[in-house]
Amino acid sequence: MRELTLKQNLVFFRQLHTFIRSGTAPITYLQDMQQQVSAPPLKAVVNGMIKAARRGKSLSTGLQSCPNALQKAHLAMFELAEKSGKLEALTYMLAEYFEWKLRMRRKIISSLVYPFILLILAIIIPPVYLIFTKGLMAYVGTVLQALCYIMGPFLILYFVQRAGLDSVKKVFDTLQLHIPVISAMVWRFNLATYFRMFALGIEAGAEVNAVAEYALASLNNTRIKALFEEQRQPNTYVFDPQYQLYPVIKRYPAVYSMVSAGFGTGNITEMMNKTAQYLEEEAQMYLANLIVVLPIFVFLIVAIYIGLIVVRFWSNMYNLIPLE
C-alpha cells in the first residue's frame, strides 16, 4: 500500500480529531469515518482500525496493519499519544501540520502558474509564421524542439527524482542550497518542518532523543539532514540543543535563541511551534520575492528564444533573395 497523500493525511487526522473530541466510542466513529471517506487508501486504513477495535486492541495496532500508509514517525507518535491519553491533541496538531504543508505546496504551485503560461505562450506564438511559409509540420516541429530544449531538462530531473534514485536526489538537494532565494526558502521550510515535528513528538509524550529522531526523519532535503546527522554521537547520543542545533542553525541567531528559551523554560512545544511559524513567515516572504524574480527569468529565456526565431526568419528571407 502506498503512503497517503498530504490531502488524505489531512482528511484522516482532521476527521479523527473531530470524532475523538466528540467523546464517541471508537468503533462508532470509525464506522462513521468509513462511510465518509472515499479514497481507497483511506478506506483501507479505517478498515484496519475497525478490525483492531472489534478485537479490543488499540487504534495504533489497526494503523500498523497498513504500515506504509503513514510515515513511521507519525505512527510511532500516534502510538505514544494513545498510551499517554494525548491522542486528541496529537491528531489536532497533525491535522494542522498537514494543512500547513498542503497550503505551502499550493502556494508554490500557484506562484509558478503565471511564469509557466508566459513561457508556453512565448514558445507557441513566435513561430506561427512557419505555418504560412513552410507548413504546419514545420511549425509543430519547431515548437516541440523548443519545448524539449527548455523544459526537457526539468522534466527529466523531476521524473528521475520521483524514481527514488538517492544519488540524483542528493545532487538535486545540494543544487537547491546553492541557488539564491530558493536556498533561503528551502532552508526555512525544512527547519519549520523539523520544529513542527519536534513539537508533535513532545506533545505525544515521547522522550527528547526519540523526538529528535522523528524530526530528523521528516526533513526533505538530504543535504540539510546530513548536516544534522553530522552532529550526532553514535552509541552515546543524547540530544543537546546547544550541541545538536547550533552548528546547523547558527546562521539564524533569532531561531536559536527561541529554541534555547523553550528548552530553558520547559515550554518546548509552544516555543517550537512559534519558531516554526516564524520560519514559515520568512519562507513566505522569500516565496513572494521568488514570484517577482521568476517572471523576469522567464522573460530572459523568452527574449533569447524570440531573438533566435527572428534571426532564423531573416536568415531564411536572405536565402530567398536571388544572388546576381
In round numbers, the mean pLDDT is: 80
Provide the domain count.
2
Distance between the termini: 74 Å
Structural class: mainly alpha
Low-confidence stretches: none
Residue fraction in strands: under 5%
Structural commentary:
With 324 residues, this protein is mainly alpha-helical. It has two domains: 6-94, Receptor-associated Protein (Up-down Bundle), CATH 1.20.81; 104-324, no CATH class. It has helices at 6-22, 26-36, 40-54, 59-63, 72-84, 87-124, 129-133, 136-162, 166-176, 182-204, 208-217, 222-229, 241-249, 253-265, 268-320. The mean pLDDT is 80.
Q: TL;DR of this structure?
A:
The chain is mainly alpha-helical. The chain has helices at 6-22, 26-36, 40-54, 59-63, 72-84, 87-124, 129-133, 136-162, 166-176, 182-204, 208-217, 222-229, 241-249, 253-265, 268-320. The chain is elongated.
Question: How is this fold's topology laid out?
Answer:
Layout: H1 6-22, H2 26-36, H3 40-54, H4 59-63, H5 72-84, H6 87-124, H7 129-133, H8 136-162, H9 166-176, H10 182-204, H11 208-217, H12 222-229, H13 241-249, H14 253-265, H15 268-320
Helix pairs in contact: 1-2, 1-6, 2-3, 5-6, 5-10, 6-10, 6-15, 10-11, 10-15, 13-14, 14-15
